[in-house]
Known about the structure:
Chain A is mainly alpha-helical. Chain A has a single domain (7-69), classed as 434 Repressor (Amino-terminal Domain) (Orthogonal Bundle). Helix content of chain A is 51%, strand content 8%. Chain A contains five helices and two strands, in the order E-H-H-H-H-H-E. Chain A has a two-stranded antiparallel ribbon with strand order 1-2. The two termini of chain A are 21 Å apart. Helices cover 86% and strands 0% of the residues of chain B. Chain B has helices at residues 3-28, 35-59, 61-65, 70-99, 104-132. The radius of gyration of chain B is 17 Å and the shape is flat. Chain B starts with a helix and ends with a helix. The relative contact order of chain B is 0.18. The model of chain B has no long low-confidence stretch (mean pLDDT 93). Classes of the chains: A mainly alpha, B mainly alpha. The A-B interface holds A 1-2, 27, 31-36, 38-39, 42, 44-45, 47-48, 51 and B 2, 63, 66, 69-72, 74-75, 78, 129-130, 132-134.
Amino acid sequence: MGKRPPITNRVRSLREKHGQMSQAALGEAVGVTRHTIIAIELGRYSPSLETSFRIARLFNVGLEDVFGWEGD
Amino acid sequence: MSFKEKSAWAMGAIMLVTGVWYAQLVAAAPQAPVIGPLISYVLAVIVLSIIAQTVLAILSPREAHASADERERIVMDRAGNWSGIVLGLGVITAIIMYIGGWSATLLVHAIVGALIVAQLAEYLFQIFLFRRAV
């Protein structure tokens, strides 16, 4: 936290492609609060590996389809 | 604003108000037995905390029953670590004042004061971290 993590993500677009899933619904599905989903989408918080996998599995995509390294 | 942040605001306000009240009690009678203001302070904090948490739980019943998620745990752990430093500095200051001539009564009040300030700092750190990471 604090310094912006160099990790990009496509959580918002995946959520929108997934039937306009709400942030609250995604949070509930992967075991975090809506505020944590907001923080992830804004790039202010890098989720744990477990939560990252939960998000990827929920959208039926690979981990690297959700998260990337800035500049790659 | 998340439930945990609302709770931190409420508890921070309670610590601030009761802390100022405790300081006024001590200032009015610095050498009086410690037990009087201490019991009044502890009871006030308990009653106000129960009221605040009950109101917050009524307003957000689902969030109130949910345990902290991974980001909230990081925030609370970090705020706890930082407030521990504040507590340590307060206790060291109190001991130095005691060595410098303060009475044992004032030493106890200073340590209670350090506990209050550290607790207030913990809630302020939580609010700061919740705001920074959301």
